[in-house]
């Protein structure tokens, strides 16, 4: 039908239809990613407001995109380094927090997708000890609940 109306070759029509189909699905994929990025930005900006703008803030987590949170938390820092802050899953919860404190990490983000609810409870127990405070939680579509812990807290 289209070939008769447009006098285009069959291969050109197939390419145009394929592109139209691909482009119609693309905004849905980008919208989901944009919503997750908004949660990372919100966490990063929250941290940036709490911290000294001249100092790099290190934030650790078990998901690769924790680097996005680090970027947003350090946007105003002149020469913010680009570190990879994803942790391996081989850990003991209490020793992990102590190791992060020793390495001058300011925050740790627990996320529902990569950690269990039992692990969250262990981190919450650790937050009852000096130097660790549960600050706030967010809800992301892809990662689920995300909880921010402050490390080396002097309050």
Description:
The protein contains 5 helices and 4 strands, in the order H-H-E-H-H-E-H-E-E. The chain is α+β, with helices and mostly antiparallel strands and 155 residues long. Strand 3 (132-140) and strand 4 form a beta hairpin. Helix 2 crosses helix 3 (66-73). The longest helix is centred in the N-terminal third of the chain and has 41 residues, at 10-50. It starts with a helix and ends with a strand. The relative contact order is 0.14.
Quick structural overview:
It is built from five helices and four strands. It is α+β, with helices and mostly antiparallel strands and 155 residues long. A hairpin with a 3-residue loop joins β3 (132-140) and β4.
* Order of adjacent strands in the largest pleated sheet: 1-2-4-3
Percent strand: 15-25%
Largest sheet: 4 strands, mixed
Q: Return Rg in Å.
A: 22 Å
Shape: elongated
Q: Which regions are unreliable across 5 or more consecutive residues at pLDDT < 50?
A: none
Q: How much helix, percentage-wise, in residues?
A: 40-55%
Structural descriptors:
single chain, 155 residues, alpha+beta, four-stranded mixed sheet, 5 helices
Please render the helix and strand layout as text.
Elements: H1 2-6, H2 10-50, E1 59-61, H3 66-73, H4 93-102, E2 107-111, H5 117-126, E3 132-140, E4 144-151
Parallel strand pairs: 1-2
Antiparallel strand pairs: 2-4, 3-4
Helix pairs in contact: 2-3
């Amino acid at each position: 039908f289209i070939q008769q109306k447009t006098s285009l070759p069959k291969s050109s029509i197939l390419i145009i239809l394929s592109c139209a189909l691909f482009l119609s699905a693309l905004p849905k994929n980008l919208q989901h990613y944009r919503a997750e990025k908004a949660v990372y930005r919100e966490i990063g900006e929250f941290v940036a407001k709490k911290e000294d703008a001249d100092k790099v803030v290190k934030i650790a987590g078990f998901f690769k995109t924790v680097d996005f949170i680090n970027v947003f938390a350090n946007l105003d820092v002149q020469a913010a380094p680009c570190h990879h802050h994803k942790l391996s899953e081989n850990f003991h919860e209490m020793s992990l927090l102590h190791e992060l404190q020793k390495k001058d990490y300011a925050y740790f983000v627990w996320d529902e997708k990569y950690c269990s609810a039992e692990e969250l409870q262990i981190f919450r127990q650790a937050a009852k000890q000096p130097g660790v405070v549960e600050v706030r939680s967010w809800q992301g579509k892809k990662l689920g609940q995300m909880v921010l812990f402050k490390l080396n807290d002097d309050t």
